[in-house]
Write a structure and sequence with these properties.
Elements (H helix, E strand, L loop, with lengths): L12 H7 L4 H16 L3 H14 L1 H14 L5 H8 L4 H9 L5 H13 L5 H33 L4 H12 L3 H23 L4 H18 L4 H12 L7 H31 L7
Helix pairs in contact: 2-7, 3-8, 4-5, 4-6, 4-8, 6-11, 7-8, 7-10, 7-13, 8-12, 9-12, 10-11, 10-13, 12-13
Length: 278
């Protein structure tokens, strides 16, 4: 009896569904479900996770310092910043794959249950506050460690730290705000794209592409920027606490606007009605 070539008809329906890409409504359902799980976490759990993210994202800063110091003498300044875009994603990969809570990644995600009327806006602000405090606290600790250990190891000096900090602070606050909006937009998209990624390799690639764009364009990220500017604050007489606070507040507001308006709100309005469960 001759055998016939297998066709898609021979594949069980559930298997074909598993292999099919997720629809917009399925991604939205998954995002809302993931966000609701975060709302159920305790305050201490969120603080610890976000503190861990603040520490881990610091490896991007350390690598930027190392690369800047290495290429500074033989490469133009503009080229150095583009080279840094290749190492900028490292900290983000550690944070995202390690499931730590980063403010800019969570901004749009945590807004979805509020839009969906499954959570209150007061709870959203509570979570945002916890994540920001944890991220900034972790960033300050890794900043202090980096500023101490870099010169001790001879991989970069304080002049490199100051140079990076001044580069971040160079634009005026309006430019930083708009830049931060774009960075928050991209980070919100990162969360959305990761939900539709089904393997570790694809997730790493998505993280690398999104964050390398942020690094190459020089967009302002409030959590990495916190480490960069705070490091300058403790090493340079030219950078004041007012410079640090002005930058930090502006970058946080910009990142939040980008994630909420251009990702959470638009994605929700565009795709919520595709699903009968949302």
């Amino acid at each position: 009896m001759s055998t016939q070539k297998s066709t898609t008809k021979d594949i069980p329906e559930n298997e074909t569904q598993e292999n099919a890409p997720m629809s917009h409504s399925e991604i939205l359902r998954e995002q809302v479900s993931e966000a609701l799980d975060i709302y159920k976490k305790t305050n201490s759990s969120i603080l610890i996770s976000s503190f861990s993210a603040g520490l881990e994202i610091g490896f991007s800063f350390i690598l930027i310092c190392v690369m800047t110091a290495f290429f500074a003498d033989d490469t133009s300044s503009s080229t150095v910043w583009k080279i840094n875009a290749l190492v900028y994603p490292v900290g983000f990969i550690l944070v995202v794959l390690g499931k730590s809570m980063l403010f800019t990644e969570q901004t749009s995600l945590l807004t979805l249950p509020v839009l969906n009327k499954k959570s209150k806006i007061t709870d959203l602000f509570r979570l945002w506050s916890l994540v920001i405090v944890g991220n900034i606290s972790g960033g300050i600790i890794i900043s202090l460690l980096a500023v101490w250990v870099g010169p001790k190891l001879g991989v970069f000096g304080l002049d490199t730290v100051i140079r990076i900090s001044e580069h971040v602070l160079k634009p005026d606050l309006l430019v930083i705000l708009v830049s931060a909006v774009l960075a928050g937009w991209l980070m919100g998209l990162l969360s959305w794209l990761l939900t539709s990624s089904d393997s570790t390799i694809s997730r790493i690639l998505v993280i690398f592409i999104i964050t390398a764009v942020i690094g190459a364009v020089g967009l302002h990220h409030s959590i990495v920027g916190n480490i960069e500017v705070f490091s300058g604050l403790i090493t340079s007489d030219q950078i004041t606490i007012i410079d640090y606070l002005s930058f930090q507040i502006t970058a946080i507001i910009g990142n939040a606007i980008g994630g909420v308006v251009f990702v959470a709100l638009l994605k929700y309005k565009a795709f919520a009605y595709d699903s009968g469960t949302i």
